[in-house]
Each structure stands twice: as structure tokens, then as C-alpha cells.
């Protein structure tokens, strides 16, 4: 019952909060495009591979994977976010966007060579993030890759420590518990380990996991 209520609350939060900010969020493509490019290269998969981008938002990361030559599906709960994402679809790209919930992905087991989530986990309650990662693990092929991009933890980099007060000014209330707990707490619960990792400007961490 607790999880059901949490899921309902999170869906409501997504529909209300992100509906208001969808157009503003799309402006991040001009600011964070170096991060998107670095993450796409860091996945290190020879195209074309099938990738699902969970909580795709306005589709910036999915777009970078598609530009490399991958076959990408981006999913999100927010219709407004997806409307912005669909503007990135081009005839020369294998890219599409679907309305779907990350805690119940509409795909069969072992469907994708890789699953990714960028800047999404810090906006989710712990229990929701756990369910999302379990689903990403389920739909990724055995031996496939899972890529996570999110805020770096202050204990990992001095720039993350310096910028945390600023991030706290604009991020939601879920950011601080996420950072304090550490992402490896989530990963341990679903038996996933970091295979490779890097960072972008010390502010964001890019983690690669093997399924």
C-alpha cells in the first residue's frame, strides 16, 4: 500500500511540476550538451545498438545516442516533456519517444543492449528509484550496459562540495536525501556494481554498470 501511494504521488508530482517547466528544461540542451556528448561516448557501444532512455525528459540524451547511430527509445511520464522531446526527431535518426512509467517499462525482458537514465534519479523517492533501476536491469540484455548520469556526490569531488549549496537552492527536496545516501546504496540493493565511472566538471557523475 505504501508503494502504491508513493507511485501515485510521484506521478502527480511529475505531471504537475514538469508540465510547468518543460520548455525551460529544454534550454539545458545549450548548457549541458558537452555532458550529453561525453556520456554518449562513455557508453562505448559500437552502433547500431538498441537503447532505452528512461525518464528521458526533453530527450537531450536520447538524441545524442541517436546521432551516433543507435536505435533509441526515450520514455517519460510527462506529456509536456515528450512534446519537447519529439521536436528532436529527424528522418535520418532512429529515435522515438513514448509515454511510459519507468517503474513498469512496456518492454520484454532482455530487449535492449543498454538502458540509460540521466538526471532523473535525484528527483525520485528512494523506493521509486529502486523500482526504476530494477526495470532497467530487467529490460537490458544479460551482459548489457546500464548508464547512469546524475549529480556527483560531494565526497567524490571537491567541485561537487563547492557547488552543493547552489544546487540546493533550485533542486527539489529529494536531491539532498539522494546525495547524502549515495547512489551505491541503490545499486547494492539490486546487485549492480559500477564497472567504470567518470565525471563532468566534478559536478556530475557518469556511471557504467554491467547487467
UniProtKB/TrEMBL annotation:
UniProt superkingdom: Bacteria
Task: Cite the GO molecular-function annotations of the record.
Answer: methyltransferase activity
Pfam families per the record? Ubie_methyltran
Q: Which InterPro entries match?
A: SAM-dependent_MTases_sf
| PANTHER family, sorted | 2-METHOXY-6-POLYPRENYL-1,4-BENZOQUINOL METHYLASE, MITOCHONDRIAL, METHYLTRANSFERASE
From the Swiss-Prot or TrEMBL record, give the protein name.
Methyltransferase domain-containing protein
Natural source organism? Candidatus Roizmanbacteria bacterium RIFCSPLOWO2_01_FULL_37_16
